[in-house]
Amino acid sequence: MAGRVRIQDVAAAAGVSVATVSNALNRPERVNAGTAARIQRIARELDYVPHHGAVDLRHGRRSAIALVIPDVTNSFYARITRGAADAAYGHGFSLVLCDSNDDAERERDFFTMLADQRAAGAVVVPRGADRQRLDGLRRRGIPLVLTDRAVPVQEGCSVAVDDVAGGRLAVEHLLAGGARRILVVNGDRAIRQCADRWQGARQAVREHRGAAVRQVSVPQMDVACGAAAVRELAELPDAVFCTNDFLAVGVVQALLARGVRVPGDITVAGFGDLDVATVSAVPLTTVRQPVEELGRAGVGLLLDEVEAVDDHTHEARQFPPRLVVRESAPRQEVLV
Amino acid sequence: MAGRVRIQDVAAAAGVSVATVSNALNRPERVNAGTAARIQRIARELDYVPHHGAVDLRHGRRSAIALVIPDVTNSFYARITRGAADAAYGHGFSLVLCDSNDDAERERDFFTMLADQRAAGAVVVPRGADRQRLDGLRRRGIPLVLTDRAVPVQEGCSVAVDDVAGGRLAVEHLLAGGARRILVVNGDRAIRQCADRWQGARQAVREHRGAAVRQVSVPQMDVACGAAAVRELAELPDAVFCTNDFLAVGVVQALLARGVRVPGDITVAGFGDLDVATVSAVPLTTVRQPVEELGRAGVGLLLDEVEAVDDHTHEARQFPPRLVVRESAPRQEVLV
DNA sequence: CAGTGCGTCTTAAACGTTTTAGAAAGCCGT
DNA sequence: ACGGCTTTCTAAAACGTTTAAGACGCACTG
Asked: Domain HTH lacI-type, which positions (chains A, B) (predicted)?
């Protein structure tokens, strides 16, 4: 009684042709009601499940989509993955995960895997993907949705978080708390996200008379670098905006170590709302990005393009982040 | 020049039959060297990539495996995923990610997706999966490797971390540091991992004359509960072993808040080596589990069963954790 | 009673491959 | 000149489905 049961087995058991079985299961109205019921019963009894690959092949359709990311272990990508998985499940697609392990060559391999029609399309958070390769896939009829990278909208859909708004949000909050001299602890400004968050910070400051901002850039966005950035700072600001929560945790630790009270003397805001934000000695006020939403929307746009290939118009969707207020920079109750 | 190029197109362009193209690409020795070269060149020029689904169908083979997990967002599962992805890539398989979002019904859906031959097998970290359903899949010829759950080895392969050894490791370290009265802050003892880690702790203590251990159980394994567990403790121990890093972070915070020095007065060890371990006010000494290895080995065993279906013997593989010494419980330099 | 139409089922083609069996052609030795 | 062998290619079946087209019987109509 073992082994896979094919549509043929059902047909044999019911004493009809395979076509009739197929019809009974997919379009019962074309089959005598009694027969249809009988076939359905038999199929259920035999525990028949259609071979999905064959169905797809027949239909010239593909019911899997791919998600290409640099590293699931990074919670940002994990959250994208989670959102994408949700959406894929919701649409009845299966999701093949392509984790490039931050390796450009592996990423390339995944792209040729896409070309072999395994997937109907892909949501990609690019690592090294060059435009040429992406175009190659598109020409093959494999839609791509890019994430977290600026893309000319005529080339395809994209989704991203509005990092400028995020930086602005954080700094506006610090200013509203009474801070005037703001320090921004940033990562490599060549990274778009870093540049954008800094730009948002500047916008906020520019609109606030009497406020001043300055920036210090560190090589790695981790706790140690955050701590280093303020450990030997000659002149302390009123508030610090870190473009990443790890940096913020380091900053808070270093400030406390210097005997500076947070938020008493200096307020601190982070970015990302990572796990560490709540675990920090002083729970971090930070900017929460709708990352799951990024994944979900990416898959949504992709499937829209896949299914409504006729009248699909590309779209560059941007999501607003929101502020999560915790202790490191509390809601202002400062009555001046 | 757009659209998918099929093997037929290559055949037409080369003026040969599709069979010859297939041979030229897959078994060139059966084809005249010159022709083979010409066909390969043409295939390359046309950018031909075989339709993987069709190939699989023809071969009665499947080149995808599934990974069923409760939630990628949880770093434990993310690390399993990463290991599984690595191994799948290494073997030329694609990995379809089934994130059940901690939902038993969704998990069931994924299992019927498996039955439809989309995947050659699955590595599953079960949430609610009952034995009956798993057996159903196995009877269909879909091999399953279970993770992180004790399974009778005759039913299939499994991989797990040796949690008993982990608990033992941590507590032995605390004892070696000079501690005698050990407190274990544990989660729900109905959870296998919690029970095992506690058992390991007890073993270590039992083998150490003069040592005593006691346990307190908290409802959630998070920072708040960890803090609560020691905040109002009447009698402080020499050392605390927390069966999870979040608990440990909470414990450290609460101890520091009480004016207890860590590791000066009390040493603390955690479990998991999560991100938070390094970020904690006092970097945590903790037990690192080879989680990626779990995923990698899971896929390895699965593919062994898939490919060498003849002489595969089931295996329950267990991985030893190792201790990561940081500041909360430093290497003993205590010269008694 | 021939013709028409309907309801029900089946035959066969198709999806894009691989592979088996065999055909065509060239060469060899007798 | 012929049978047999080798080399090189092709036709066709197969994988498990779906579906367009057609066959068969039956009731109805004129």
From this structure: 5-59
